[in-house]
Amino acid sequence: MVDVTRENFSSVWAEVERAVARCDFLALDCEFTGLDHSIARNSTDDPADRYTRLRHDAATYHIVQVGVATFEYSEAESQYVVRPFNFYVFPFHEASFYPECTFSSLASSLAFLAGNGLDLNKLVSHGVPYLSLAEYDRIKEHIEQECTRAKQEREESGEALRKREEQELLDDKNNSDLIQSARAKLNQLKAVGDSVSFPDLNAFQRRLVYKLVSAHYASNDVIAVTRSAEDQSDVRKKVVLCKKLSPEEDPFAYARNEKLALLDECLGFTKVVKLISESKKLVVGHNMLLDTLHLVHQFFHPLPDTYAEFKLLAASCFPRVADTKVLCSTNPFKEHISRSSLENMFRSVALKPFKKIVTFFPKGYDKYAKTRQCHEAGFDAYMTGFSFAAMLKYLGSMVKPPKQFVSSSSPIVEPFVNKIFIMNMCDIYYIDLANDDPTSNKSNVFYLEFPDTWKSSNIIELFKPFTSFSYVNWKSNTSAFVRLKEMTSPADVVRKSVQTAAPDSVSVSTYEEYCAASKSVPKRTATPTEENGCKQNPEKRQKTEFEVPEFETH
Protein backbone atom coordinates (compact mmCIF):
# COMPACT_ATOMS: atom_id res chain seq x y z
CA MET A 1 0.00 0.00 0.00
CA VAL A 2 1.25 3.43 -0.86
CA ASP A 3 0.69 6.35 1.50
CA VAL A 4 0.64 9.27 -0.90
CA THR A 5 1.69 12.79 0.10
CA ARG A 6 2.89 15.77 -1.90
CA GLU A 7 6.47 14.49 -1.65
CA ASN A 8 5.84 11.24 -3.54
CA PHE A 9 2.74 12.17 -5.55
CA SER A 10 4.67 12.80 -8.77
CA SER A 11 6.54 9.49 -8.56
CA VAL A 12 3.38 7.52 -7.65
CA TRP A 13 1.28 9.09 -10.41
CA ALA A 14 2.45 6.68 -13.12
CA GLU A 15 1.64 3.71 -10.84
CA VAL A 16 -1.88 5.08 -10.28
CA GLU A 17 -2.39 5.42 -14.04
CA ARG A 18 -1.30 1.83 -14.66
CA ALA A 19 -3.37 0.45 -11.79
CA VAL A 20 -6.56 2.18 -12.98
CA ALA A 21 -5.97 1.14 -16.59
CA ARG A 22 -5.54 -2.55 -15.69
CA CYS A 23 -8.24 -3.00 -13.04
CA ASP A 24 -11.66 -4.60 -13.44
CA PHE A 25 -13.11 -2.16 -10.91
CA LEU A 26 -11.88 0.17 -8.19
CA ALA A 27 -13.17 1.03 -4.74
CA LEU A 28 -13.20 4.48 -3.16
CA ASP A 29 -13.54 5.70 0.41
CA CYS A 30 -13.28 9.19 1.89
CA GLU A 31 -12.68 10.62 5.35
CA PHE A 32 -14.22 14.03 6.16
CA THR A 33 -13.56 16.89 8.58
CA GLY A 34 -17.22 16.99 9.54
CA LEU A 35 -20.38 14.93 9.37
CA ASP A 36 -23.80 16.01 10.64
CA HIS A 37 -25.59 12.77 11.52
CA SER A 38 -28.84 14.57 12.31
CA ILE A 39 -29.37 15.37 8.61
CA ALA A 40 -30.63 11.85 7.85
CA ARG A 41 -33.05 11.65 10.78
CA ASN A 42 -36.13 12.84 8.91
CA SER A 43 -37.49 9.73 7.22
CA THR A 44 -40.26 11.75 5.53
CA ASP A 45 -37.72 13.51 3.31
CA ASP A 46 -37.84 12.84 -0.39
CA PRO A 47 -34.50 12.64 -2.23
CA ALA A 48 -34.63 16.33 -3.22
CA ASP A 49 -35.17 17.37 0.41
CA ARG A 50 -32.30 15.20 1.57
CA TYR A 51 -30.01 16.56 -1.15
CA THR A 52 -30.72 20.12 -0.01
CA ARG A 53 -29.67 19.20 3.53
CA LEU A 54 -26.58 17.24 2.51
CA ARG A 55 -25.45 19.85 -0.02
CA HIS A 56 -24.70 22.36 2.72
CA ASP A 57 -22.74 19.71 4.64
CA ALA A 58 -20.64 18.80 1.59
CA ALA A 59 -19.90 22.46 0.83
CA THR A 60 -18.86 23.16 4.44
CA TYR A 61 -16.53 20.29 5.33
CA HIS A 62 -13.59 18.75 3.48
CA ILE A 63 -12.27 15.41 2.34
CA VAL A 64 -8.87 14.95 3.99
CA GLN A 65 -8.08 11.36 3.07
CA VAL A 66 -9.09 9.34 0.02
CA GLY A 67 -8.60 5.61 -0.33
CA VAL A 68 -8.41 4.13 -3.82
CA ALA A 69 -8.10 0.35 -4.16
CA THR A 70 -7.87 -1.14 -7.66
CA PHE A 71 -8.94 -4.77 -8.19
CA GLU A 72 -7.38 -6.51 -11.19
CA TYR A 73 -8.47 -10.12 -11.76
CA SER A 74 -5.86 -12.70 -12.69
CA GLU A 75 -7.52 -15.66 -14.42
CA ALA A 76 -4.28 -17.66 -14.32
CA GLU A 77 -4.11 -17.43 -10.53
CA SER A 78 -7.88 -17.12 -9.87
CA GLN A 79 -7.21 -14.15 -7.63
CA TYR A 80 -7.55 -10.40 -7.46
CA VAL A 81 -4.39 -8.30 -7.56
CA VAL A 82 -5.14 -5.40 -5.22
CA ARG A 83 -3.29 -2.09 -5.25
CA PRO A 84 -4.47 0.24 -2.47
CA PHE A 85 -3.48 3.91 -2.33
CA ASN A 86 -4.05 6.11 0.71
CA PHE A 87 -4.02 9.79 -0.29
CA TYR A 88 -3.67 12.63 2.21
CA VAL A 89 -5.30 15.66 0.56
CA PHE A 90 -5.22 19.29 1.70
CA PRO A 91 -6.51 22.39 -0.12
CA PHE A 92 -4.00 24.27 -2.24
CA HIS A 93 -3.26 27.63 -0.64
CA GLU A 94 0.21 28.80 -1.66
CA ALA A 95 -0.03 30.78 -4.89
CA SER A 96 -0.68 34.47 -5.53
CA PHE A 97 -3.37 33.66 -8.09
CA TYR A 98 -5.40 31.52 -5.66
CA PRO A 99 -7.55 33.02 -2.88
CA GLU A 100 -7.23 31.85 0.70
CA CYS A 101 -9.29 28.77 1.55
CA THR A 102 -11.47 28.40 4.63
CA PHE A 103 -10.88 24.99 6.19
CA SER A 104 -13.88 23.95 8.32
CA SER A 105 -14.08 21.01 10.68
CA LEU A 106 -15.93 19.57 13.63
CA ALA A 107 -13.83 18.95 16.72
CA SER A 108 -15.44 15.54 17.19
CA SER A 109 -14.61 14.51 13.61
CA LEU A 110 -10.95 15.50 13.88
CA ALA A 111 -10.68 13.73 17.22
CA PHE A 112 -12.23 10.61 15.65
CA LEU A 113 -9.82 10.69 12.70
CA ALA A 114 -6.78 11.29 14.92
CA GLY A 115 -7.93 8.50 17.23
CA ASN A 116 -8.01 6.14 14.25
CA GLY A 117 -4.50 6.92 13.07
CA LEU A 118 -4.83 9.94 10.79
CA ASP A 119 -1.75 12.13 11.29
CA LEU A 120 -3.05 15.72 11.33
CA ASN A 121 0.46 17.19 11.06
CA LYS A 122 1.10 15.01 8.03
CA LEU A 123 -2.19 16.15 6.54
CA VAL A 124 -1.50 19.87 6.83
CA SER A 125 2.24 19.82 6.09
CA HIS A 126 2.37 17.07 3.48
CA GLY A 127 -1.15 16.61 2.08
CA VAL A 128 -1.44 16.47 -1.72
CA PRO A 129 -2.80 19.84 -2.86
CA TYR A 130 -5.74 20.17 -5.22
CA LEU A 131 -7.87 22.61 -7.17
CA SER A 132 -11.31 21.72 -8.47
CA LEU A 133 -11.64 21.56 -12.25
CA ALA A 134 -13.93 24.59 -12.09
CA GLU A 135 -11.29 26.55 -10.14
CA TYR A 136 -8.60 25.38 -12.54
CA ASP A 137 -10.53 26.67 -15.57
CA ARG A 138 -11.23 30.01 -13.87
CA ILE A 139 -7.59 30.57 -12.85
CA LYS A 140 -6.30 29.48 -16.26
CA GLU A 141 -8.50 32.09 -17.91
CA HIS A 142 -7.23 34.69 -15.42
CA ILE A 143 -3.58 33.84 -16.24
CA GLU A 144 -4.24 34.15 -19.98
CA GLN A 145 -5.89 37.54 -19.50
CA GLU A 146 -3.15 38.76 -17.15
CA CYS A 147 -0.37 37.85 -19.58
CA THR A 148 -2.18 39.52 -22.47
CA ARG A 149 -2.68 42.66 -20.40
CA ALA A 150 1.00 42.71 -19.31
CA LYS A 151 2.14 42.45 -22.93
CA GLN A 152 -0.15 45.30 -24.00
CA GLU A 153 1.02 47.45 -21.09
CA ARG A 154 4.68 46.87 -21.96
CA GLU A 155 4.08 47.67 -25.63
CA GLU A 156 2.15 50.87 -24.84
CA SER A 157 4.31 52.33 -22.05
CA GLY A 158 7.41 50.17 -21.92
CA GLU A 159 10.07 52.86 -21.55
CA ALA A 160 8.15 54.87 -18.97
CA LEU A 161 7.46 51.72 -16.97
CA ARG A 162 11.13 50.69 -17.16
CA LYS A 163 12.30 54.06 -15.87
CA ARG A 164 9.82 54.00 -13.00
CA GLU A 165 10.98 50.54 -11.93
CA GLU A 166 14.62 51.64 -12.22
CA GLN A 167 13.98 54.63 -9.94
CA GLU A 168 12.15 52.47 -7.39
CA LEU A 169 15.20 50.19 -7.22
CA LEU A 170 17.53 53.14 -6.69
CA ASP A 171 15.31 54.48 -3.90
CA ASP A 172 15.16 51.11 -2.07
CA LYS A 173 18.10 51.48 0.34
CA ASN A 174 16.91 48.69 2.68
CA ASN A 175 17.47 45.98 0.06
CA SER A 176 20.51 47.36 -1.75
CA ASP A 177 22.64 44.33 -0.87
CA LEU A 178 20.07 41.94 -2.38
CA ILE A 179 19.79 44.09 -5.50
CA GLN A 180 23.56 44.24 -5.99
CA SER A 181 24.03 40.48 -5.53
CA ALA A 182 21.15 39.84 -7.94
CA ARG A 183 22.79 42.13 -10.50
CA ALA A 184 26.03 40.19 -10.21
CA LYS A 185 24.25 36.89 -10.91
CA LEU A 186 22.18 38.33 -13.78
CA ASN A 187 25.30 39.70 -15.43
CA GLN A 188 26.43 36.11 -15.90
CA LEU A 189 23.65 35.49 -18.44
CA LYS A 190 25.54 35.69 -21.75
CA ALA A 191 24.36 32.90 -24.07
CA VAL A 192 20.86 31.79 -25.03
CA GLY A 193 19.62 29.21 -22.54
CA ASP A 194 21.83 30.40 -19.68
CA SER A 195 19.95 30.64 -16.39
CA VAL A 196 20.47 31.60 -12.77
CA SER A 197 18.18 30.89 -9.84
CA PHE A 198 17.33 32.74 -6.65
CA PRO A 199 16.14 30.32 -3.93
CA ASP A 200 14.97 31.11 -0.41
CA LEU A 201 13.41 34.49 -1.22
CA ASN A 202 10.20 35.73 0.34
CA ALA A 203 7.41 37.16 -1.81
CA PHE A 204 8.66 40.76 -1.49
CA GLN A 205 12.21 39.79 -2.46
CA ARG A 206 10.95 37.84 -5.46
CA ARG A 207 9.14 40.96 -6.65
CA LEU A 208 12.40 42.91 -6.38
CA VAL A 209 14.14 40.41 -8.67
CA TYR A 210 11.28 40.65 -11.16
CA LYS A 211 11.52 44.44 -11.07
CA LEU A 212 15.30 44.33 -11.60
CA VAL A 213 14.97 42.04 -14.62
CA SER A 214 12.20 44.21 -16.09
CA ALA A 215 14.15 47.47 -15.62
CA HIS A 216 17.63 46.38 -16.75
CA TYR A 217 17.64 43.00 -18.48
CA ALA A 218 14.37 42.59 -20.41
CA SER A 219 15.94 44.32 -23.41
CA ASN A 220 18.60 41.58 -23.38
CA ASP A 221 15.91 38.87 -23.67
CA VAL A 222 16.14 37.88 -20.00
CA ILE A 223 12.96 36.77 -18.28
CA ALA A 224 12.13 35.90 -14.66
CA VAL A 225 9.67 33.14 -13.70
CA THR A 226 8.72 31.49 -10.40
CA ARG A 227 8.94 27.74 -9.98
CA SER A 228 8.37 25.33 -7.12
CA ALA A 229 11.48 24.34 -5.18
CA GLU A 230 12.85 20.85 -5.81
CA ASP A 231 12.25 20.12 -2.12
CA GLN A 232 8.46 19.72 -2.14
CA SER A 233 8.15 19.18 1.60
CA ASP A 234 7.06 22.82 1.86
CA VAL A 235 4.99 24.24 -1.00
CA ARG A 236 5.76 27.74 0.27
CA LYS A 237 9.34 27.38 -0.99
CA LYS A 238 9.64 29.01 -4.40
CA VAL A 239 12.58 29.64 -6.69
CA VAL A 240 12.91 32.60 -9.07
CA LEU A 241 14.55 31.38 -12.27
CA CYS A 242 16.02 33.96 -14.64
CA LYS A 243 16.77 32.75 -18.13
CA LYS A 244 18.17 34.27 -21.31
CA LEU A 245 15.87 33.64 -24.27
CA SER A 246 16.59 33.83 -27.98
CA PRO A 247 15.44 36.99 -29.78
CA GLU A 248 12.75 34.91 -31.53
CA GLU A 249 11.14 33.75 -28.29
CA ASP A 250 8.18 35.69 -26.91
CA PRO A 251 8.93 36.42 -23.23
CA PHE A 252 5.25 36.91 -22.42
CA ALA A 253 4.31 33.56 -23.96
CA TYR A 254 7.18 31.96 -22.02
CA ALA A 255 5.94 33.51 -18.76
CA ARG A 256 2.39 32.38 -19.48
CA ASN A 257 3.50 28.81 -20.12
CA GLU A 258 5.51 28.78 -16.87
CA LYS A 259 2.48 29.96 -14.90
CA LEU A 260 0.27 27.35 -16.56
CA ALA A 261 2.83 24.68 -15.68
CA LEU A 262 2.69 25.79 -12.04
CA LEU A 263 -1.11 25.72 -12.23
CA ASP A 264 -0.96 22.12 -13.45
CA GLU A 265 1.10 21.25 -10.36
CA CYS A 266 -1.62 22.84 -8.21
CA LEU A 267 -4.24 20.54 -9.75
CA GLY A 268 -2.71 17.78 -7.62
CA PHE A 269 -5.10 15.09 -6.43
CA THR A 270 -7.82 16.26 -8.80
CA LYS A 271 -5.78 14.53 -11.52
CA VAL A 272 -6.53 11.20 -9.82
CA VAL A 273 -10.28 11.81 -9.66
CA LYS A 274 -10.27 13.05 -13.27
CA LEU A 275 -8.36 9.92 -14.34
CA ILE A 276 -10.94 7.69 -12.62
CA SER A 277 -13.80 9.61 -14.23
CA GLU A 278 -12.33 9.40 -17.72
CA SER A 279 -11.51 5.69 -17.34
CA LYS A 280 -15.23 4.92 -17.02
CA LYS A 281 -14.30 2.00 -14.76
CA LEU A 282 -16.89 0.89 -12.22
CA VAL A 283 -16.39 2.87 -9.00
CA VAL A 284 -17.51 1.00 -5.89
CA GLY A 285 -18.29 2.65 -2.57
CA HIS A 286 -20.12 1.82 0.62
CA ASN A 287 -23.00 4.08 1.66
CA MET A 288 -21.43 6.43 -0.85
CA LEU A 289 -23.89 9.32 -1.17
CA LEU A 290 -21.80 11.64 1.00
CA ASP A 291 -18.59 10.49 -0.71
CA THR A 292 -20.15 11.32 -4.08
CA LEU A 293 -21.36 14.75 -2.97
CA HIS A 294 -17.97 15.68 -1.50
CA LEU A 295 -15.97 14.32 -4.45
CA VAL A 296 -18.08 16.21 -6.99
CA HIS A 297 -18.00 19.47 -5.02
CA GLN A 298 -14.36 19.35 -4.01
CA PHE A 299 -12.73 18.16 -7.22
CA PHE A 300 -15.14 18.85 -10.09
CA HIS A 301 -17.70 21.60 -9.74
CA PRO A 302 -19.69 23.32 -6.94
CA LEU A 303 -22.83 21.36 -6.19
CA PRO A 304 -25.82 22.75 -8.11
CA ASP A 305 -28.94 24.13 -6.46
CA THR A 306 -31.32 21.42 -7.58
CA TYR A 307 -31.34 17.68 -7.05
CA ALA A 308 -32.08 17.02 -10.74
CA GLU A 309 -28.95 18.97 -11.75
CA PHE A 310 -26.90 17.10 -9.16
CA LYS A 311 -27.89 13.73 -10.61
CA LEU A 312 -26.80 14.84 -14.09
CA LEU A 313 -23.52 16.26 -12.77
CA ALA A 314 -22.71 13.20 -10.63
CA ALA A 315 -23.45 10.84 -13.53
CA SER A 316 -21.13 12.82 -15.80
CA CYS A 317 -18.33 12.72 -13.19
CA PHE A 318 -18.77 9.02 -12.35
CA PRO A 319 -20.51 7.25 -15.26
CA ARG A 320 -20.68 3.86 -13.48
CA VAL A 321 -20.92 3.43 -9.71
CA ALA A 322 -22.06 0.64 -7.40
CA ASP A 323 -22.87 0.96 -3.71
CA THR A 324 -22.23 -2.14 -1.61
CA LYS A 325 -24.77 -0.91 0.95
CA VAL A 326 -27.44 -1.17 -1.76
CA LEU A 327 -26.29 -4.72 -2.55
CA CYS A 328 -26.28 -5.94 1.03
CA SER A 329 -29.70 -4.32 1.66
CA THR A 330 -31.10 -6.33 -1.26
CA ASN A 331 -31.94 -9.96 -1.85
CA PRO A 332 -30.14 -12.31 -2.28
CA PHE A 333 -27.58 -10.65 0.04
CA LYS A 334 -29.92 -9.19 2.63
CA GLU A 335 -30.63 -12.52 4.31
CA HIS A 336 -26.92 -13.30 4.71
CA ILE A 337 -25.68 -9.88 5.93
CA SER A 338 -27.51 -9.06 9.13
CA ARG A 339 -25.99 -5.60 9.59
CA SER A 340 -24.77 -3.53 6.69
CA SER A 341 -22.01 -1.48 8.33
CA LEU A 342 -18.75 -1.71 6.37
CA GLU A 343 -16.87 -3.78 8.95
CA ASN A 344 -19.75 -6.20 9.50
CA MET A 345 -20.26 -6.62 5.76
CA PHE A 346 -16.53 -7.33 5.35
CA ARG A 347 -16.72 -10.04 8.03
CA SER A 348 -19.96 -11.51 6.67
CA VAL A 349 -18.72 -12.07 3.11
CA ALA A 350 -15.84 -14.14 4.47
CA LEU A 351 -18.36 -16.69 5.81
CA LYS A 352 -20.68 -19.18 4.13
CA PRO A 353 -22.59 -19.11 1.86
CA PHE A 354 -20.14 -16.67 0.23
CA LYS A 355 -17.29 -18.21 -1.74
CA LYS A 356 -13.66 -17.62 -0.83
CA ILE A 357 -12.02 -14.58 -2.42
CA VAL A 358 -8.25 -14.74 -2.90
CA THR A 359 -6.40 -11.42 -2.99
CA PHE A 360 -2.75 -10.69 -3.68
CA PHE A 361 -0.93 -7.48 -2.77
CA PRO A 362 2.16 -6.78 -4.94
CA LYS A 363 5.35 -5.66 -3.23
CA GLY A 364 4.97 -2.14 -1.93
CA TYR A 365 1.20 -2.52 -1.60
CA ASP A 366 1.15 -5.18 1.11
CA LYS A 367 0.51 -3.15 4.28
CA TYR A 368 -3.06 -4.44 4.54
CA ALA A 369 -1.93 -8.02 4.09
CA LYS A 370 -0.31 -7.67 7.50
CA THR A 371 -2.40 -5.14 9.42
CA ARG A 372 -5.96 -3.85 9.49
CA GLN A 373 -6.60 -0.16 10.00
CA CYS A 374 -10.34 0.54 9.96
CA HIS A 375 -11.26 4.18 9.24
CA GLU A 376 -8.07 4.66 7.27
CA ALA A 377 -9.42 5.46 3.82
CA GLY A 378 -7.10 3.05 2.01
CA PHE A 379 -8.12 0.08 4.15
CA ASP A 380 -11.82 1.00 4.05
CA ALA A 381 -11.56 1.13 0.25
CA TYR A 382 -9.99 -2.33 0.32
CA MET A 383 -12.79 -3.71 2.56
CA THR A 384 -15.37 -2.21 0.19
CA GLY A 385 -13.77 -3.70 -2.91
CA PHE A 386 -13.22 -7.10 -1.27
CA SER A 387 -16.88 -7.26 -0.22
CA PHE A 388 -18.02 -6.31 -3.72
CA ALA A 389 -15.84 -9.02 -5.24
CA ALA A 390 -17.33 -11.59 -2.85
CA MET A 391 -20.87 -10.55 -3.77
CA LEU A 392 -20.04 -10.75 -7.49
CA LYS A 393 -18.74 -14.28 -6.98
CA TYR A 394 -21.92 -15.20 -5.10
CA LEU A 395 -24.02 -13.91 -8.01
CA GLY A 396 -21.85 -15.99 -10.35
CA SER A 397 -22.61 -19.13 -8.33
CA MET A 398 -26.36 -18.61 -8.87
CA VAL A 399 -26.33 -18.69 -12.68
CA LYS A 400 -26.17 -21.76 -14.90
CA PRO A 401 -23.52 -22.77 -15.51
CA PRO A 402 -21.89 -21.19 -12.43
CA LYS A 403 -19.19 -18.57 -13.06
CA GLN A 404 -15.92 -18.49 -11.14
CA PHE A 405 -15.38 -14.84 -12.10
CA VAL A 406 -18.00 -12.18 -12.80
CA SER A 407 -16.70 -9.06 -14.49
CA SER A 408 -17.91 -5.69 -13.24
CA SER A 409 -19.27 -5.11 -16.76
CA SER A 410 -21.37 -8.30 -16.71
CA PRO A 411 -25.15 -7.97 -17.24
CA ILE A 412 -25.55 -9.65 -13.84
CA VAL A 413 -24.17 -6.51 -12.22
CA GLU A 414 -26.21 -3.96 -14.17
CA PRO A 415 -29.32 -3.96 -11.89
CA PHE A 416 -27.10 -2.53 -9.14
CA VAL A 417 -25.20 0.04 -11.22
CA ASN A 418 -25.71 3.78 -10.56
CA LYS A 419 -27.89 3.15 -7.52
CA ILE A 420 -26.65 4.90 -4.38
CA PHE A 421 -27.91 4.12 -0.89
CA ILE A 422 -29.88 6.83 0.89
CA MET A 423 -30.31 6.44 4.63
CA ASN A 424 -33.51 6.46 6.68
CA MET A 425 -35.92 7.26 3.87
CA CYS A 426 -39.55 6.39 4.28
CA ASP A 427 -39.92 3.54 1.81
CA ILE A 428 -37.05 3.83 -0.64
CA TYR A 429 -33.43 3.07 0.06
CA TYR A 430 -31.54 4.22 -3.01
CA ILE A 431 -31.41 6.97 -5.58
CA ASP A 432 -30.79 6.20 -9.25
CA LEU A 433 -28.28 8.45 -11.02
CA ALA A 434 -29.23 7.11 -14.46
CA ASN A 435 -33.03 6.90 -14.19
CA ASP A 436 -36.00 8.20 -12.23
CA ASP A 437 -35.86 7.39 -8.54
CA PRO A 438 -38.25 4.84 -7.03
CA THR A 439 -41.62 6.35 -6.13
CA SER A 440 -42.12 6.98 -2.45
CA ASN A 441 -45.56 6.19 -1.03
CA LYS A 442 -46.30 8.28 2.05
CA SER A 443 -49.96 7.33 2.47
CA ASN A 444 -48.98 5.81 5.84
CA VAL A 445 -47.36 9.04 7.10
CA PHE A 446 -49.17 11.55 9.33
CA TYR A 447 -48.27 14.96 10.70
CA LEU A 448 -49.11 15.90 14.29
CA GLU A 449 -48.98 19.12 16.31
CA PHE A 450 -49.27 18.77 20.08
CA PRO A 451 -48.31 20.35 23.44
CA ASP A 452 -44.61 20.55 24.26
CA THR A 453 -45.12 18.19 27.19
CA TRP A 454 -45.80 15.24 24.87
CA LYS A 455 -43.38 12.36 24.42
CA SER A 456 -43.06 9.65 21.79
CA SER A 457 -45.10 7.31 23.95
CA ASN A 458 -48.09 9.68 23.79
CA ILE A 459 -47.96 9.69 20.00
CA ILE A 460 -47.50 5.94 19.67
CA GLU A 461 -50.47 5.31 21.95
CA LEU A 462 -52.78 7.30 19.65
CA PHE A 463 -51.97 5.12 16.63
CA LYS A 464 -51.88 1.72 18.36
CA PRO A 465 -55.30 0.57 17.05
CA PHE A 466 -54.14 0.99 13.44
CA THR A 467 -50.62 -0.45 13.29
CA SER A 468 -48.23 -2.96 14.79
CA PHE A 469 -45.53 -0.31 15.04
CA SER A 470 -45.18 3.47 14.75
CA TYR A 471 -42.04 5.37 13.74
CA VAL A 472 -41.84 8.88 15.15
CA ASN A 473 -39.78 11.63 13.51
CA TRP A 474 -39.67 14.81 15.56
CA LYS A 475 -39.91 17.99 13.51
CA SER A 476 -39.88 20.42 16.41
CA ASN A 477 -40.72 20.44 20.12
CA THR A 478 -44.43 20.51 19.29
CA SER A 479 -44.68 18.63 15.98
CA ALA A 480 -43.69 15.30 14.49
CA PHE A 481 -44.21 12.94 11.58
CA VAL A 482 -45.51 9.44 12.30
CA ARG A 483 -45.13 6.51 9.94
CA LEU A 484 -47.23 3.42 10.47
CA LYS A 485 -45.99 -0.06 9.69
CA GLU A 486 -48.64 -2.29 8.09
CA MET A 487 -51.46 0.23 8.48
CA THR A 488 -54.77 -1.61 8.96
CA SER A 489 -57.17 1.08 7.65
CA PRO A 490 -57.19 3.74 4.90
CA ALA A 491 -55.39 6.98 5.70
CA ASP A 492 -58.54 9.12 5.93
CA VAL A 493 -60.11 6.68 8.37
CA VAL A 494 -56.99 6.62 10.52
CA ARG A 495 -56.71 10.43 10.55
CA LYS A 496 -60.34 10.97 11.53
CA SER A 497 -60.26 8.27 14.20
CA VAL A 498 -57.01 9.53 15.75
CA GLN A 499 -58.23 13.15 15.64
CA THR A 500 -61.44 12.13 17.42
CA ALA A 501 -59.51 10.22 20.11
CA ALA A 502 -56.89 12.93 20.59
CA PRO A 503 -57.18 15.89 23.01
CA ASP A 504 -58.33 19.20 21.55
CA SER A 505 -54.76 20.51 21.73
CA VAL A 506 -53.62 17.94 19.14
CA SER A 507 -54.13 18.25 15.38
CA VAL A 508 -53.65 15.36 12.95
CA SER A 509 -53.09 15.61 9.17
CA THR A 510 -52.25 13.14 6.45
CA TYR A 511 -48.90 13.74 4.78
CA GLU A 512 -50.73 14.89 1.65
CA GLU A 513 -52.67 17.47 3.67
CA TYR A 514 -49.47 18.62 5.36
CA CYS A 515 -47.76 19.18 2.00
CA ALA A 516 -50.75 21.10 0.63
CA ALA A 517 -50.83 23.33 3.72
CA SER A 518 -47.07 23.90 3.58
CA LYS A 519 -47.27 25.14 -0.02
CA SER A 520 -49.87 27.75 0.95
CA VAL A 521 -47.77 29.16 3.81
CA PRO A 522 -44.95 31.65 3.00
CA LYS A 523 -41.56 30.01 3.46
CA ARG A 524 -39.31 31.06 6.32
CA THR A 525 -35.80 30.06 7.24
CA ALA A 526 -35.84 26.92 9.36
CA THR A 527 -33.84 26.74 12.54
CA PRO A 528 -31.01 24.22 12.52
CA THR A 529 -33.04 22.01 14.85
CA GLU A 530 -36.10 22.03 12.58
CA GLU A 531 -34.05 21.70 9.41
CA ASN A 532 -32.39 18.55 10.62
CA GLY A 533 -35.54 16.98 12.00
CA CYS A 534 -33.96 17.08 15.43
CA LYS A 535 -35.64 17.20 18.83
CA GLN A 536 -34.44 19.62 21.48
CA ASN A 537 -35.26 17.35 24.40
CA PRO A 538 -33.47 14.01 23.91
CA GLU A 539 -35.57 12.33 26.59
CA LYS A 540 -38.66 12.78 24.44
CA ARG A 541 -37.19 10.99 21.44
CA GLN A 542 -37.17 7.27 20.87
CA LYS A 543 -34.68 5.76 18.47
CA THR A 544 -36.59 4.21 15.62
CA GLU A 545 -35.55 1.64 13.04
CA PHE A 546 -37.10 0.76 9.73
CA GLU A 547 -36.93 -2.19 7.38
CA VAL A 548 -35.39 -1.72 3.95
CA PRO A 549 -37.68 -2.96 1.20
CA GLU A 550 -36.42 -5.48 -1.30
CA PHE A 551 -34.71 -4.30 -4.47
CA GLU A 552 -36.63 -5.51 -7.47
CA THR A 553 -34.63 -6.71 -10.48
CA HIS A 554 -36.36 -7.31 -13.79
Number of helices: 19
Q: Give the biggest sheet.
A: 7 strands, mixed
Give the helix/strand class. Answer: alpha/beta
Report the sheet-strand fraction.
15-25%
Percentage of helical residues? 40-55%
Q: What would you report as the Rg, rounded to the nearest angstrom? A: 30 Å
Based on DSSP secondary structure assignment, what is the total number of beta strands?
16
Compute the average pLDDT.
Answer: 86
Q: What kind of assembly state do the chains in view correspond to?
A: single chain
| Terminal-residue CA separation | 40 Å
Overall morphology:
elongated
Q: Would you identify the regions where 5 or more consecutive residues have pLDDT less than 50?
A: 521-554
Helices and strands, with pairings:
Blueprint: E1 2-4, H1 9-22, E2 25-32, H2 47-60, E3 63-74, E4 79-88, H3 107-115, H4 120-126, H5 133-171, H6 176-186, E5 195-198, H7 203-216, E6 222-228, E7 238-244, H8 251-267, H9 270-279, E8 282-285, H10 289-300, H11 307-317, E9 321-323, H12 324-328, H13 342-348, E10 359-360, H14 367-370, H15 377-397, E11 419-421, E12 430-432, E13 445-449, H16 456-463, E14 469-476, E15 479-485, H17 491-501, E16 507-510, H18 511-520, H19 528-531
Parallel strand pairs: 1-4, 2-8, 4-10, 8-9
Antiparallel strand pairs: 2-3, 3-4, 5-7, 6-7, 11-12, 13-15, 13-16, 14-15
Helix pairs in contact: 1-9, 2-10, 5-7, 5-8, 6-7, 13-15
